Amino acid sequence: MNEQKIEKYCHTIIEYGFLGLLLVVPLYFDPQASGVFDTTKITVMRFFSIIILTAWLVKAALIGHSFVRSRLDLPVLAFFWTSILSTIFSVYPYTSLVGAYKRHEGLTTTISYILLFFVATNFFHQKRLFRKTCYCFFAVAIFSSIYGIAQRLGIDPTNWASNVSERAVSFFGNPIFFGAYLCMTIPLAFGFFLSRQRQESILPGKKKKTTTTHAAKPVITTPKKIETTVATKGNWTVWLYGIILCLSFAGEIYAMSRGPWVGLFMAMILFGIVAGKKMLFENRVRLCVIGVVFGLLILSASVGPHSIFERISSTVEIKETATGEKKAEITGGAGNRLKIWERSAHIMRDYPVFGIGLDSLKFVYTGYKTLLMESLEGHNVDYDRSHNEFFDIGVMRGFVGLGIYLWLFFAFFFFCWKSYQGIKNSNDRLVLLGICSAVLAYHAQSFFAFAVCSFTILFWVLMGMGMVQAGYITLPQESKKRGIKISPIRYGLSILIIGMGIFLFYLAHFPYKADIYFREGERAINENNLDKALESYEQAVKFNPWERHYYGELTFTYYKKAASIPMEDQDKKREWVQKAFNRTMDAFVLNPTDGYFYNIMGAIYALSYDVDGREQDKQKAFSSYKTALKHNIVFAEPHNNMAALYSKLNQYQNAIKEYEEVLRIIPDDVQCMSTIGDIYFKMGQMDKSIQWQQKAVSIDPKLSRAWHRLGEIYFSQGAYASSAMCFNRIIEAEPNNVSVHIDLGAALLRGGKIKEARKEFEYVLSHDPGNTYVRGILGSMAM
Fold it and tell me: How many CB atoms are located within 10 Å of the residue 30 CB?
């Protein structure tokens, strides 16, 4: 096979692999997997990345490859190397390598992003391929917008997700990710929409080849705009881009995501300022038409219970201070992000050089979490992102990585602006401006969000395309040597590369397969089939043995299985306790400082103490719970578990102290309040028991256990009317609860309401004719 054919085949594979990645990754999802939109997309991206990289390396091994250089190569490579160093010095290196569950933004993903940048500059600088790349972006925008609009209208053929009519998620699984993709494609499409395509092409041609001096050093000349050619496209293409714009804007609006709205707003401000009055005036008809359509879309989204203005206004809430002064506060998700950023700054201070490592925030944040964050975001919410890309990079890659990222940020816009000023052709300027505006949209929305592969791939490709369109690429001089025989060593090396590619392809499918098994385990848990769940979870761990999230569910399910065995079957219970213990010890290999696993271990020791009564098991249970709190400072479960164990040991004061710690973390935990009331009931302190039970029902008026305890206390105190009222409150929520009807009948009978009591007892017999106790009461009443 000659060099021309090898080059043709390899370039074809790279071309279709690249375009396939851009098209399939954003649109693909699989409800069979637990990570419907996460593990599935990242696996597809890895598949295509392996294909592209393998073809590129095979070409380099057989006939060599001269790299196309760009002005961004240095900051991009610096960002790559700092990512490697952050992974090496990570607090959890394996997680930093492959990425955390459902985010997968580890080093392997970073490699894919950077690969896309270099593929864009090295292979897609030709007009034909540049055009195809843009078509892929617009195709994804069209399909995803149509799907998002359908969701908004209540038409979702998959019917797998909830509340998509309020905030459309399309193929992205999250309205923020959906909006982030569209806020980049809209400015890009806007550049094409305003171009005068009848007169000339707006897409790049081939860059002139560089020459070398007698010293064999390349001469880097002042960048010139890529040549253009005449095109004969009709005016219909302009309005095709108009349709793309309208659909994309509708999808953006219906995603109801404020971060992408900010990104789009900033992008269009940049576009309008840089394009200038003259350019905008020349396109006034198009702008008026598209403006009217945009206005109608905004108007349509401004009515109803989930309007865009309601979404925007929810960012700020007017609150009254203690002095009666009114004060505006940022609330909701926006307010929570400010608190997360503040804690992220503390982490950056403690890990200043290379950060904590890629995708490791979830494991470190537990030591920085505050009670305020627990109350704002909810109980046991895992913070795996700062919800700000700049903070995320600073936390995970340190100040070194953040500095390099800022270098990349400013370098891109500097080179694009410098090139824009020298471009004479208005169409070329519009395309470059569209690319720059799209990149700015990414950065603006990322100030309130974080990166995932579904839309971040677009950002990295646009960075490469920006350098191509700006003319800041240096094409190597074509080799004149053709027809030279390829040595067997090169063939052997290429076979080895292909073999490695196949092997990596094989490895890449394991996380996907594991996630499908994990999803089966989740379904089994919902059906309360613990044996099936354990079987599925074990398969998930088999195919992805280093995934902490899988082990978390596996160990907890083992504990539930051990706890479900009756105490009468002590041998079987002891067997399952040992299985749970062994699996939890395996989990510590992943993370020896994980508070969650220490809490599970404490619960297992407590079960063992129930079975055998060994003092050492009791002590190890308390020790494990305390260690869990050491590693996770805001963790209610260990306090709750210690309280239950103290209560079982009749150490009621210690139990109350631990339950009060639970309430310090979760102030509205009504079950905990009611349990404290039950403890005071056991201690004979009825007044305190009543106080805690009343506090519980004041928060949750339908809490049956609290009403029942109050009914019992009032009955014992002779307050039969109050007792009957409490039992009535339970019946309102549980009208078929026969035992409560018996209690209500007894309270009514003692209170002298014979007729009402008889009615309750007769109701019991109608549902439980064999109840001799109630039949005896009715018999005595007849006498």
Answer: 17
Q: Rounded to the nearest 5 degrees, what angle is found at the Cα of 246, between the Cα atoms of 243 and 250?
A: 140
Helices 488-526, 548-564: axis angle to 10 degrees equals 30
* Closest by Cα among 487, 214, 548 to 359: 548
In this structure, what are the phi and psi dihedrals at residue 319, rounded to the nearest 5 degrees? -120, 155
Neighbours of 571 (CB within 10 A): 8
Element (H, E) at 330: strand 326-330
Three-state secondary-structure class, residue 449 = coil
Instruction: Provide mean pLDDT across the span 666-694.
Output: 95
Angle between helices 236-255 and 284-300 (to 10 degrees): 30
Q: How many CA atoms lie within 13 A of 704 on its CB side?
A: 9
Please give the domain boundaries of the chain with CATH numbers for all domains: 66-316+330-474 (no CATH), 509-782 (1.25.40.10)
3-class SS at 262? helix
Query: Residue 436 to residues 66, 71, 181: CA-CA distances in angstroms?
Result: 27, 15, 15
Predicted model pTM: 0.86
Q: Any idea what DSSP says for residue 118?
A: H
Distance CA 742, CA 464 (A): 76
Cα–Cα dist 207/126, whole Å: 8
Grouping H, G, I as helix, E, B as strand and the rest as coil, residue 317 is: strand
DSSP letters, 177-235, are HHHHHHHHHHHHHHHHHHS-TTTS--S--PPPBP-B-TTS-B--PPP-PPP-------T
The DSSP-derived string for 459-521 is HHHHHHHHHHHHT-EEBPPPP---SPPPPHHHHHHHHHHHHHHHHHHHHHHHHHHHHHHHHHH
pLDDT of 213 above 60? no
Closest residue by Cα to residue 189 from 416, 430, 421: 430
Judge contact between 544 and 550, C-beta under 8 A.
yes
68 burial level (CB within 10 Å; 0-12, 13-18, 19+): buried
Q: For 231-251, give the DSSP string.
A: ----THHHHHHHHHHHHHHHH
Reported confidence tier of residue 206, pLDDT bands at 50, 70, 90: very low
Residues 6+ apart with CB under 8 A from 689: 677, 678, 680, 681, 709, 713
Half-sphere exposure (Cβ direction) of 131: Cα atoms closer than 13 Å: 10
For residue 371, give the amino acid letter.
Answer: L
Give the number of other Cβ atoms within 10 Å of residue 284's Cβ: 10
Burial (CB < 10 A; 0-12, 13-18, 19+), residue 154, is exposed
Which residue stretches of 591-651 are H helix?
Answer: 595-612, 615-631, 636-648
pLDDT at residue 774, rounded to an integer: 84
- Token pair of 209 as six digits: 């080849």
Tokens matching residue 339 = 């608190």
Band of pLDDT at residue 53, cut at 50, 70 and 90: very high
Specify the pLDDT at position 318.
Answer: 52
| C-alpha–C-alpha distance, residues 297 and 147, integer Å | 16
Give the pLDDT band (50/70/90) at residue 634: confident
Provide Rg for the chain, Cα atoms.
33
**What is the rounded distance in angstroms from the CA atom of residue 632 to the CA atom of residue 593?**
9
Give the number of other Cβ atoms within 10 Å of residue 293's Cβ: 16
DSSP state of 331: -
